[in-house]
Specification:
The chain is of the alpha/beta class and about 400 residues long. It folds into 2 domains: about 5-145, ATPase, nucleotide binding domain (Nucleotidyltransferase, domain 5, 2-Layer Sandwich); about 195-385, 2-Layer Sandwich (Nucleotidyltransferase, domain 5), CATH 3.30.420.40. It has 15 helices and 14 strands. The protein has helices spanning about 60-75, 105-115, 120-135, 155-160, 165-170, 180-195, 245-255, 255-265, 270-275, 280-285, 290-315, 325-330, 335-345, 355-360, 385-410, and strands at about 5-10, 15-20, 25-35, 40-45, 50-55, 85-90, 100, 140-145, 200-205, 210-215, 220, 320-325, 370, 380. The strands form 2 sheets. An 8-stranded mixed beta sheet has the order 5-4-3-2-1-6-8-7. Strands 11-10-9-12-14-13 form a 6-stranded mixed beta sheet, with helices on both faces. The longest helix is centred in the C-terminal third of the chain and has 24 residues, at about 290-315. The radius of gyration is 22 Å and the shape is globular. The structure holds adenosine-5'-diphosphate. Adenosine-5'-diphosphate binds near residues 207, 278, 280, 326 and 327.
Length: about 400
């Protein structure tokens, strides 16, 4: 079990990797290969150093070869056999996976079938798994699913009011995403409040964004749906819309459903209204009086407030903490201030301005309470760490399978 573990996050044109020493969870190196298939760029950080190179990398298999030759040439590993396990971030586990799993032929088959729910992500993730298997034949690999955390959601919350056969025959339902982030935040809350039955509304607000309702220590509802397109307004995704828009705009613009979905995923949300999707740029534009940037912020924050209100009612007002996390939630004190002010009266929570202003990545603290002592509920900022959860789940899944084998042998 002691040794080096690789965490792989394989995107459609990128491969991110991190090398850890376990069980200490020491990060040895972190790297990324971008623009696979074009003029690819490679960078790796270790020992406070950063190395950048340009390669022509055709596919994920080649990217894996480059990763290993760089790990070897920089003496981060002395032999490939030093790797004791690999963890993969996988978008969609459907209804099959509610926890991480050791990858075998059946799991690969399931992930291949689930490509129908993750057409943008699964092909690259499968290429990552298969490429690693070719290199590290007998090394255990673990799939950690973004959807698994949400499998506790009850059916009244995960079903859509569409013909029931769509669910029974085609598994049309809400799955939810950002599961590893929620798992991390929930663990922090359990440690902080020293209890398991946490009630919380967790706002994971990054470029991709979602909100989850945690009841009695498990997920009760979440804003994303069958795919990450549903829910609150995001950087480039529309969030919840009237589905009739799709047919209408197909006809008006004479474009396909796929083209409309591309626009809903990549050209909508904050970008659709303000013309830019980076929240720092939008806040700057709004501060300089740009009307559409102001409108985009208003719409974005209104959609967030609607979900918080909905979940607050679902929790019957019993809330341990409202949490902000991810890029915008962790870093934008102005965003947090506006949200807390919008929900302040009905929820009886008040902002501690000093704490809110000091909790930002460029300021002294990174996490803490931003509500006043007189507030009815705590409001917290907690930086998320999805990679830590993938690493922990990978290590524990491999450990459990080894212990099971030992018991079987006895
Ligand atoms: P994702 O993982 O979905 O790509 P992140 O969690 O990395 O998203 O969040 C990215 C978002 O966070 C961007 O919109 C970025 O502008 C925003 N962000 C990062 N730092 C700040 C900041 N200091 N102020 C406001 N927004 C920020």
């Amino acid at each position: 079990m002691l040794g080096k573990y690789l965490i792989i996050n394989s995107g459609s044109s990128s491969l991110k990797f991190s090398l850890y020493e376990m069980p200490e969870t020491n990060l040895i190196a972190k790297g990324i290969i971008e623009r696979i298939g074009q003029d690819s760029e490679y960078s790796i950080n270790f020992d406070g150093k950063k190395i950048k190179k340009r390669f022509g990398i055709k596919n994920h298999n080649q990217a894996i070869n480059v990763m290993f030759s760089e790990l070897l040439s920089n003496e981060l590993i002395s032999r490939i056999e030093e790797i004791k396990g690999v963890g993969h971030r996988i978008l969609h586990g459907g209804e099959i996976y509610s926890s991480p799993v050791l990858i075998d032929e059946n799991v690969i088959k399931d992930i291949t079938e689930l490509t129908k729910f993750g057409p943008l992500h699964h092909p690259a993730e499968l290429a990552g798994i298969i490429g690693m298997k070719e290199k590290l034949l007998n090394v255990p690999q673990v799939a950690v699913f973004d959807t698994a955390f949400h499998q506790s959601i009850p059916e009244e919350n995960y079903l859509y009011a569409v013909p029931y056969s769509w669910y029974k025959d085609y598994k049309v339902r809400k799955y939810g995403f950002h599961g590893t982030s929620y798992e991390y935040i929930l663990q922090m809350l359990k440690d902080y409040y020293v209890k398991d039955n946490i009630n919380s509304i967790i706002c994971h607000i990054g470029s991709g964004a979602s909100i989850s309702c945690i009841k009695d220590g498990q997920c009760y509802d979440t804003s994303m749906g069958l795919t990450p397109l549903d829910g609150i307004i995001m950087g480039t995704r529309s969030g919840r819309i009237d589905p009739s828009i799709i047919e209408y705009i197909c006809k008006e613009l004479e474009i396909s459903v796929e083209e409309v979905l591309y626009a809903l995923n990549r050209k909508s949300g904050l970008y659709g209204i303000a013309g830019v999707n980076d929240f720092r740029d939008i806040e700057n534009l709004a501060n300089n009086g740009n009307k559409n940037a102001k409108l985009a912020i208003k719409m974005f924050e209104d959609s967030i407030v609607s979900y918080i209100a909905n979940y607050y009612f679902k929790l019957n007002g019993k809330l341990d903490a409202l949490v902000f996390t991810a890029g915008i939630g962790e870093n934008s004190s102005t965003f947090r201030k506006r949200i807390v002010e919008a929900i302040s009266k009905p929820m009886n929570i008040y902002l501690n301005e000093e704490n809110n202003n000091s909790i930002a990545s460029f300021k002294k603290e990174k996490s803490g309470i931003i509500s006043t002592l007189g507030s009815k509920h705590d409001v917290l900022v907690i930086p998320t760490d999805e990679e830590y959860i993938i690493l922990k789940n990978t290590y524990e899944t491999i450990k459990k399978s080894k212990e099971k084998k030992l018991i079987l042998k006895k």
